[in-house]
Every structure is written in structure tokens, then in C-alpha cells.
Amino acid sequence: MVESDGSLSGMRIAPSALIVAGVMAIAIIPALAALGLSASSSGAPNWDYLWQAARFTLLQATFSTLLSAGLAVPVALVLARRNFVGRSLLMQLFAVPQSLPPLVAVLGLLALFGQAGLIAGMPSIYGLSGILLAHVFFNLPFAVRLLLAGLDTIPGESWRLAAQLGMGRVEIFRIIERPVIVQALPGIAGLIFMLCVTSFTIVLTLGGGPRAATLEVAIYQALRFDYEPRLALMLSLAQLVLCAAFMAFATRFATPMAASAGMGVRSERPTTRGALDAPLLLLAGLFVAAPLAAVAVAGLEADVLKLLTQARTWQAIATSTLIAVAAASLALALALPLARMAGRGVKAFQLLGQITLLIPPIVLGAGWFLLGHRLPDWSAPLFVILGNALMALPFALTALLGAFTRAAAVDDRLCESLGLQGLARLRLIDWPQLRRAVALAFVLAVMVSFGDLGVIAFFGTEDFVTLPFLLFQRLGSYRTDDAAGLALILMLLALALAGLADRLGERRT
Amino acid sequence: MIRLENVEYIAGDFRAGFDAEIPKGSFVGILGPSGGGKTTLLCLLAGFAQPQAGRIWMAGEDVTQATPAARPVTMLFQEHNLFAHLSAFENAALGLAPSLTLSAGETAQVEAALARVGLAGKAGNKPAELSGGERQRVALARALLRDKPVLLLDEPFAGLGPKLRREMLQLVMDLQAERGLTVILVSHEPDDLKMAASHAAFISQGRMSAIVPIARFFDEPQLADYL
How far apart, in whole angstroms, are the C-alpha atoms of residue B196 and residue A420? Predict the structure, then answer.
């Protein structure tokens, strides 16, 4: 199929892209095979448990999506309608959760609502309520930014028309704003739903028991706690079916471009005010800012400086750094040939880069975990690097795709007509134009890997500890102070990386 | 009659100054390079831009502070004149009622306006199902329904082929004659002016030449450089 694509448009498939496809097949197929082989192992299938996990997965994802997307609509509308001091600050705040590792948010919510939290007398945060809180923390600001990006596409002429025709607030909403929102919402909701279906860390840490376990968390528990490969296989199959069904459904809607989520630049639209605007924005801002502030406060109280004198902390930071740099390098090595081919319009290679949307990293991790049993210890970091690289691949590919699509549209013909090729083309044409996109892709991949708890959860040991895994261990052994301090370190590192990515992304345009 | 009295407009590096009188019922063509201030002139008249100094008069009234909806003006843009999710009928009907609640009489009015611009069978079509020329016809139908004495055209036919452009201009000329409209047309095409305009002026670097009868316009020396 790939070859026919290529020959149809008279286009060569670069050998490097085929090598990438081969490498990915070598990474993925044995994992699935190992899972499949466990079908022959003993143990009665636990259908009740499977059904419960599947139901809880869908339930929490549905509620998370309804809450996040539903609340985002009024917030985005008010932000689009008004211009005020601090608006850009609020937009920057709304961009923060997306770049935070889930564990940081979990620690922030625990610091606020946990048993020893700042806000006393709350019902237990563990279970559905905590999961929903964390998911809304991540996805409400995300949805606001995507909706605003949609509202920003309303052409200036529409606002002139509204003024000329004398439209009031109600008419502007009915005729101009509502259609944009109605068009954008299914894609946004679908994206959030998928993020929540595959949300692992939040459910693992805030679920608090088998009653509140999603399929992915159940897979992890089936292998690491109970060692029931057969159950893990069943759960994995259920998760794969869920992802595949959803992907098939989601392709009907335009997916919002996460990369183009703007800062909400207001064009020519007139400012309109409502009485509830200020309280609404204040609440939304507080909802996002409070957990971040709580992480900072709890981290400082926990004596983060003492943590920084401990060898174990530095060991974890060093391991995380090594893993992240290796995973990002691998992700980039995979993404570059894919982006080149995808930029030339060979869709199959773009889909290949997004394989982890179809086969979640947890399922891959489960397969590798079963393989790893028969392999020596030193293989564990390799699996984590591989897993993180595949997780980061969609982000790296998105960061590259714009620049490569433009390069393919503009430069390919010009270079061919001039006979520019090989190293000369790379040095003179490609590198100067693409290096910023490449750097951005690398930083994004480092961010994904640095904050990940999914794959490391399978392979982490006392001797192989990343920063998120150390935090997770401390949390599990109720060393709350250490966990709070580590969360602050992790948050600061993530924010530094996000700042770097922002600057790279900005100057690219 | 429209009068711009020492109007000054500044936006960033761009400065424009206008001092002119446009006779009632005239068809004024505006020619000039991109970025010279042609659209700015129309936006000042329509109320989409506020001058920093000077006054704008229409039919004896000072409209400098008036909102766009309160001015006796309809403006057609080069594109995005229609809302993509509304039918041709609804887009035109916005000119009568922005809430789209119409009486039976108003519904008939909208249908008549669409028929007048040659879209009788296409009331139910969405903009995506209309050609570029048809979309601008819908915008013209809406202008008819708004029934304002001044019509501002910001290169609304720029994307159309020569024959279609002539047809559209002819339609505007007919409507002008029927309703006694004052029309100001911004264009890149000298031919448009030759065909439709009674008067013309040249705008460049934020300044407008005197408005002269079309017969004299093409003899102006400053035009030679542009043409």
C-alpha cells in the first residue's frame, strides 16, 4: 500500500522511512506477541473485573470530558469577548497544565484536598472525584485554548458586519459565536475523551483501589502486583478495541490542531461585558493556579533544599535526564524520516507516527514487561527509552510536520530544478529552515519522557529510578514530605522545558 | 452629500488625511496602489475606524461619533460578506432583522430582493453552494433590504472574471439608478471606473486627489505612473 502510494504520485519512498517503519515493527510486534502468548497461561478469566474496569474507564472519561468541555465554553466565550489587564497572564496560566507531568498536578491536588491538605474537611479525594478534578485541571484550560483558537478564526469582516447590522449580544452569539463552537466542540471533546481513556498516572495515584481502576491501571496491577498475564491480555485487548473504536469514530470529526492553540489574539471584535464575567474568570484562574501554588508551598515547607543534598534525588534526576535525552533522540530519529514523507503527503507515515494513539504505551509496556522477564536487568532502561520515544513521537511529528510540509511544497521543486541534493541541500536549504522545528520537537519529546510514569512503572526497581518513579515510590510509602519536595523539583524542571519550547515555537513563525 | 472635513487617521506607521465632498447620487470610483488608504477611507465612512481628528457629515448630519449601524451606509467587503452556516435567504434577511425573526411581509421582501439580484431559485443555498459572484449578489440583496442611501464597495468583484465583473457592475449601476444611491467603489481596475463611475479620485500614501468627473480623471498626470 505504501509502495503504491509512492508510485502513484511518482514519488520515491526514502529508504530511511522504510527503516523507521521496520524499527517500529520490531519494537511493537514482539510486545503484542508476548501478550498474545500469555493466553495459554493458567488462571480463570475474570470477566467481572474486566467489565468493571472497562465501565469505569468509559465513565470517568465521559464525566471528565463533559465537565472540561462544558465549563470551557463559557470561559472561552468571556475571554474572547473581553480585553483586560492580566488577560495574557491568564492565557499563559492556562497553557501551564499541558506542560506539567500528571504527577505534579496530583501532588498539587493532594496538597489542597488531601487528608493533610490546606483545605480541611473535604470528602476523600481518592476515587472518581479526585480523578475528575485532576482531569478537569488538565483539560479545561486545554479546551479553553482550543476553543479560543477557533473563535480567533472568525474573520474581521464578521465583526464589521455585526456592527453594521446592529447585532446585539444575543444575535452575535447565535449567528457568529455559536456556529464556531458547535463546529469545534466534537473534535475537542473527542480529544479530551481519548486523553482521559488513556490517562494512567492520575488514575493510578488518585483512584485508590480496584473499584476505581481504568483498563490501563488494571493492566499494570495485573502484571506488577498479581502477575496474571492472562488477565493483562484480556484487559489489553479491551483497551485496544476501545482505542480502535474511538479512532474510527474520531476520524469523522476535524481534530483540533493542538499546536495552533493560540494565545487568543483579539482581532477587530468589540469588547462586550457581562456581570458574571469577572467571577467566572476568577474561578477558572483560581482552579488552575491553586494546585500549582499548592505544589510550591508544600514543596518549600517540605524542605526541598534538604532533598537536593541527597544522592538519591540526584541519581533520579540524572537517570531521568539520560532516559529523556535518549528517548528524545530516538523519537527524533524516528520522526525526521516520517515527517519528510508525511510532509510530501504520504499519509501512511503520519499514521505510523501516531501508533501510540492506537496501541497505548501501557499495552506496549505490558508486552515488554512479559518479554523482559526472560532478559537481563540492563534491558529495562532500553524498554523505557523505547516506550518513551514512541510516546513522544506524535508530539515530535506534529512539531516537525508544519515546517516539513512547507519545505516539501516550496523547496522540493526548486531544489530539483537546481540540482541541489544530498548534503548540499541539507546544509544550505534544509538545516537553516528546519533546525528550529527540530529543536522544538526534541524539547517536546524530552518533556514527554521526563514526566512519564507509565512505562517506568513496569520497569522501575530500587536501582532503576527516574524522578517521577521516585516520587511515586515516596507517595506509596506515605513519605509525603519527600513527595511534595520532589513534585516541586519536577514542576520547576517541566516549566523550564516548557519555557524553552515556547521560545522555540514562537520564533519559528 | 457626504463630507469629510479635515479627517485625520493614524494607525501605527500609517497616516491618512481626507478632506473631500462627495455629491449625492454620484458613483465615485477610487483607484490607487495597495496600502494607500482606499479601504481606510471606506472604513472611516462606515464607522469601522474612528478618526483622530476632523468630522464626517452625511446628509447634513455629523456622524463622526455614530456607530456603524446608525450610519446611512452599507459596505460590501471583498470576501466574508456572508455567514457560512446561514442560507442565502438568511444572510440577506439579516439586513432586515439581525434576530432573523421575520413577519410574512418581510419574508416576501427578502424573496423580492433575492429575485432582484438574480438569485430567485437559490434562496436555500448555503454560501458554499454559491459561486463567488452569487455570494456577492446575496450581499447586494442584503444591502437593498437595509435600504441605506450610501453603498460602499471595497473591491467586492476583484476575484471575478472580466465578463462576470461587468455584469455585477451593471447590476450595481441599475440598483443605483433605481434607488438614487451614492456609490463609492474601490477598485484596482481602471476599466471598472470607465464603465460605472461618474466621478473618480486617486488615493496613495494616505492622501486623496480631488474628486473629478470621470471624463477628466484619466488625463490627470499622477495617474500615468500608476497605470
Answer: 52
Q: Measured between beta carbons, which residues in chain A are less than 8 angstroms from residue B81? A: 157, 161
Answer whether A160 sits within 8 Å of B68, measured CB to CB.
Answer: yes
If you count DSSP H runs as helices and E runs as strands, how many of each does chain A have, helices first? 24, 0
Name the E strands within A294-390: none
Statement: residue B91 has pLDDT above 90: yes
A401, containing H or E segment = helix A379-418
Residue A345, sorted as left (phi over 0), alpha (psi -120 to 50) or beta, turns out to be left
Q: Decide if B87 is inside a domain.
A: no
A161 to chain B nearest CA, in Å? 8
Is the Cβ pair A164, B79 closer than 8 Å?
A: no
List the CATH number of the domain containing B200. 3.40.50.300
How many Å separate Cα A240 from the centre of its chain?
18
In terms of DSSP bridges, do strands B14-22 and B2-11 run parallel, antiparallel, or are they unpaired?
antiparallel
> Is the separation of the CB atoms in B53 and B59 below 8 Å?
no
pLDDT recorded at residue A11: 56
CB-based burial label for A427 (10 Å; 0-12, 13-18, 19+): exposed
Q: Is B79 touching A (CB cutoff 8 A)?
A: yes
B220: left (phi over 0), alpha (psi -120 to 50) or beta: beta
**Pick the residue with more confidence: B141 or A256?**
B141
The answer to whether A170 contacts chain B (CB < 8 Å) is yes
B16 belongs to a structural domain: yes
Nearest to B2 by CA among B20, B28, B25, B22: B22
In the three-class reduction of DSSP (H, G, I as helix; E, B as strand; rest coil), residue B62 is classed as strand
Three cell numbers written together for A315: 541519581
**Which residue type, as a one-letter code, is found at position A185?**
L
Nearest-neighbour CA in chain A from B197: distance (Å): 25
Considering only residues A261 and B4, tell me which one the structure prediction assigns the higher pLDDT. Answer: B4
Whether B79 is covered by a domain: the verdict is: no
Nearest to A304 by CA among A493, A478, A100, A109: A493
Q: Please state, in angstroms and as integers, the Cα–Cα distance from residue A248 to each residue in A194, A258, A444, B175, following that order.
A: 12, 20, 27, 52
Instruction: Name the DSSP letter for residue A279.
Output: H
Give chain A positions within 8 Å (CB) of B80: 155-158
Domain that holds residue B49: 2-72+148-226
Which residue ranges of chain A lie beneath pLDDT 50? 1-10, 257-267, 508-509
Q: Is the pLDDT of residue B29 over 90?
A: yes
Enter the ipTM.
Answer: 0.84
Minimum mean pLDDT range among A249-253, B120-124, B125-129: A249-253
> Which grid cell sits at B106?
418581510
CA distances from B183 to B1, B173, B180 (A): 11, 9, 9
pLDDT, residue A260, reads: 38
| Average confidence score pLDDT of chain B | 92
pTM of the complete model? 0.85
Q: Which of B56, B26, B66, B3 is CA-nearest to residue B182?
A: B26
Number of domains in chain B: 1
Per-residue model confidence (pLDDT) at position A171: 92
- Residue B130 sits at φ, ψ, to 5 deg, of -115, 155
DSSP state string for A231-250? HHHHHHHHHHHHHHHHHHHH
Phi, psi (5° rounding) for residue A183? Answer: -75, -40
- End-to-end Cα, chain B, rounded Å: 30
| Across B110-117, average pLDDT | 95
Tell me, yes or no, whether B100 lies in a domain: no
